[in-house]
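Supplementary notes for students who missed Thursday's class. We covered one full example, reproduced here. Read the sequence, then the structure, then the short commentary at the end.
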Amino acid sequence: MKRVLCLLLCLMLVPLAALGENVEDSLIVGMISTRTTEIRPLVPQERDIVSLYGVVYESLVTVDDNGLPQPLLAESWTESNGGETWTFTLRENITFSDGTPLTAQDVVASGQYILNLAKNDQGLDRGFYGNIRYMVSSFTAQDDRTVVVKAARDYYGLLYSMTFPVVPASQVEMANPVGTGPYVISSFEPASYMLLNANPSWWQTQPQVQEITVTFYPNNKDMINAYEYGRVDTVFTRSVAAAQYKSGINSLSISYSTRQLEVLLINHRERSFPLDSLKVRQAIRYAINVDSISQNVYMGMTTDADTPIPSDSWLYYDQENTFVYNPDKARELLAEDGWVDLDGNGILDKPVEGAEEPKHLVLGLWVYEDPDNDVRFETANMIADMLAEVGISIHVETVSYDECKTVLENGGFDLALCSFQMDVVPDVGFFLRKGNEQNYGRYNSSEMTSLIDTLRTQENQADFAYTSQAIQQQFAADVPFICLFYRTGAILTRKMFTTVRSIREFELLRGIEAFGR
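Structure (token representation):
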């Protein structure tokens, strides 16, 4: 049901175009950028800059409104040897903006450059596309139109990793390479502006919007002020302050999805009393009112996520009533597990065989905070209050990001409030599979590990979805941690420039090239 509602809400975006002015032949965009000093699409340095690269550079594969891989520079592909080899056939007569023909050698050079960086164990930064090392072993060109990809994991997820930008083979190490996309970068001044113009050599129909001027700002405050005073038409922001801007006659507020999953980690380390008890973990889940946190702290700028799969994903499996807020059910589960308030102080206790004193249900909650955003700290305190209502005492420990990461790596925590940046490949094994580096909770399930290994052998869409469903069911049964929600951002604009149903982080200008056709 949640997925259906989300899709309906997305579809409702299209009529909103009537509330604002339709874009004509130009758009002025405000964006935060302080670190990008060169145009390097293969190694982007900032999140929102990737959205600009997305209209200049194209990839073999794109992801459609439903989250499914579709052809872009590749007109088709086939897999063989049980998913070990994927062969992509390029479209004919595509050129870069300088008139140079696109060939398989360009795709191979671009992909191999990214792959080499990702596999460099000596490097501190594996790059924005670093997870490609888990998907691809090598790229080769069979001829000018045929790219052969050897898989590191023989499964459907490889298609999502084919969304990296393609530049000419001779320019992979150069700043400001040419692209095949609908726009070209005509001018760029770091931390100041970027000018994009329509690419006359683009292989599709010329866009209505011929010019995009991007003004860079150092922070959200300055950018929002520029929007309020009419200096820009459009801004992209993930600040919860954007929730105050509602769609009206002259302005639109359009939600976009991000890959940032907010979670409450639970430590499963050996003999981790009392969190080794499934009933205690289930009670924690039932005691937390996620909707209240979303509305009161994040101002509704979230997407439901009962499991690591967001509710608007084609892979989402709705397990109705499994994750509902129910403090009475939480109390019932704790009582079944032997917890009672022996001394009447509101904190549950449990006699333990061999111990002189009963154990008290007191847990530490570690939380790190962004320097200019206290939403996570507020969330931690709300969770502490909710758990106190069912007899669980929480001590909130606020630390820096680096301190929290050290605690997670060392396993010295009970609960931790943090976030994960998910990859474009819909594979949640990196923090659920036994022994994986980012499985900070030391969750150890042979059933889950087997399901993840099975997922990574599924070669087609149907089998991939079926196994993903099983993973979500196992997640609900085990409660390895608590998924709160995915963050969302907001596009504030006076000019409607797109009618696509799914606007996503890293693709914030998605659909501008087709608007008005």
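Commentary. The CA atoms of residues 261 and 486 lie 4 Å apart. Residues 1-18 have pLDDT under 50 and may be disordered. If anything here is unclear, bring it to office hours.
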